[in-house]
Sequence to fold (275 residues):
Amino acid sequence: MKSTKTLFALFVVFSCVCLIGLPQAIAGRAAFDVNKMADMSDFDPNNPIIYTGDDTIRIGLLQLFSGPGAGNGEIFWLTCNWVAHDINKRGGILVDGKKKKIVFIKGDTKGKPTDTKKACERLILKDKVDILWGTSGSHLTNIISQVAKKYKVIHQNSLACSDYLMDAKNFSRYTFQTFTRNSIFGQGGAYYYGQRNKEKKFYILCQDYSFGHSLADEFKKGLKKYFPAAQIVGEDYHPLFAKDFAPYVTKIQASGAEVIFTGDATCSKPAGIWA
Fold:
C-alpha cells in the first residue's frame, strides 16, 4: 500500500466538564467560582457519594456498563462523578434559591436498542431522574431522545453526532446536542485532503451501524464537493466490537490505498461502539 503511514482517524474524546454548563432552565446560576476546584483528595471513584432527598439534580448516565463495550461506561462513570464531587463539595448548584447536589445513576444500554429503552424508562419512572445523559451510539441516542420526548424529560446528547438525530423528523424540544455532527467531521476531512492535494486514493473502514455509515457518507459527499479527483478504492463496514482486522488490512493493502478513513474509536478494547 502506497504511503501506508498516512492515516486519517476520527477519535472522539469527551469531557463531562460540560455538566457545569447544564441548561439554565434546570441548573440556574452557579453558586461557586468555576475557575477554582474543590479539594478532591477524598474522591473515591469506586464509592461515589450518592446524595438523596429533594435537594438533588438526578442525572441518568446511559452507557455500556456490561458486555464487550463495558469499558466505555466505566470511563464516563468515573469522569462524571469526578465533576459531581467537585461541584457538590462546593455546595452544589443554585436552583430557585436552593443549593442542589448532583447525583448520577447508571443506566446500562448494553449496546442494544431494547435494553436502552428499558434503561431509560427505569431511570425516569423508578429513579425519577431530571436529565438523561448519553449515549455512545447514534442509533441508541435516537431511542433516548424519543423516550425523553414521551416523558418530557431533558436529554443531553454529548456523544452521538449523526446528523439525522437533529433533523426535521427526529428533532425534539427535550433533546440538546452539545457535540458536533458527522457532516463536519466527514466533509471537513475531505476538505483537508482537497487542500493538501497529495493523497488521492482512499479506503473507508467504519463500524457497521448508523454512525459508521453516516460518517462515511459525509466523507464521500465532501470528496465530491472539495476533491473530485479523489478515488474511493475500497469500502468496508465491520461488526461492532470486532477483534480481528487482518482480513480488512489485507484488502486495504491490495487496493493501493494511500489513506484509511475510519470512524473507529480507541477508548476501550475491543474496537467499540461510538457516536
Notes: Confidence is low (pLDDT under 50) at residues 1-31, 266-275.
